[in-house]
Amino acid sequence: MTEDCQGNDTMSHLENSLEHHKARLRKAGYKLTNARITMLEVLQDLGGHITSADVLDAVAKVDETIGRASVFRTLDLLTQLGIIRPTYIGTSQTPTYVMLPNGHHHHVICTHCNRVIEFEDCGLGELEKKLETALGVSITGHLLEFYGLCQQCTGLSAT
Amino acid sequence: MTEDCQGNDTMSHLENSLEHHKARLRKAGYKLTNARITMLEVLQDLGGHITSADVLDAVAKVDETIGRASVFRTLDLLTQLGIIRPTYIGTSQTPTYVMLPNGHHHHVICTHCNRVIEFEDCGLGELEKKLETALGVSITGHLLEFYGLCQQCTGLSAT
DNA sequence: CCGTTAATGATACTGAGTCTCATTTATAAT
DNA sequence: ATTATAAATGAGACTCAGTATCATTAACGG
To answer: How many CB atoms lie within 10 A of CB A41?
Structure first.
């Protein structure tokens, strides 16, 4: 995790996405504060599918002094910037945040056991362009969720 | 908002989906209680994009005696059955429920003004089948959300 | 290095959603 | 119809995720 490969204008997304997100904050007029940088690092580390409690925990381990309010404020900000996205797994009252590494995220949620299966290919690029034209919007990302039963639960309910 | 031209062609479709949902409950082994039927009617009436508070309100107007807990229990149940789906608009702490009339729902959320623009065509049928084969799952519905700026906010941020 | 102002941390607070449990009600069997 | 029974309910106390407030701090442009 300590390999510094910044400066390469090609690839190595994982490392660079942190820098990319920082740049996004700056560009949007937000200050690059310690709390925000720590949040980005922690989120990258945890990798997504985490609750606010998870984030609160992880942030506290890195920097004891970062306040509860700032964590929630930053979660909201990063959501607005399309860096993360809250969603519901199961019927939990509290959302689960997923990363939108390249602006998008896709998964299947089993409505029986709440297992989450991620997948990559969505082929939505075309639709995205169509919508931009048709609706006059400017799209930066998306979340695609399928609901249904996973392999195990399909078998069970066939009883 | 938007010209939402869904279901205009079949007024009876609205009636039927209520029956359809009741049948689903029965088939899944759940009792057709007064609270649940009232909830289904209220949800159909409100048409989606509503918070639990909206539902609580509307239910109370129809039947004073239905308890708070039952409303939340039923929201969870209907989510599990794929009849509704909680999602986040803006950074609200409390979810907004959308109806999944035919198992699916699609919208664009403006990350600046929180406007929601629904659209119908998603062309995900093929992907759905592919995933069922590839992952061994049995899919019953989906939610597709795009994030970005609406026409108005695209203009504004050009400042 | 300083001034401005966004952002912060502490903490009290709010209220959405949950839990518990005695009571009711939907449904199937008689 | 009557009854058995297990699921579902309503009441209301309770929890804790998320918010509001505000005095203090620190990012960043000049």
So the answer is: 17
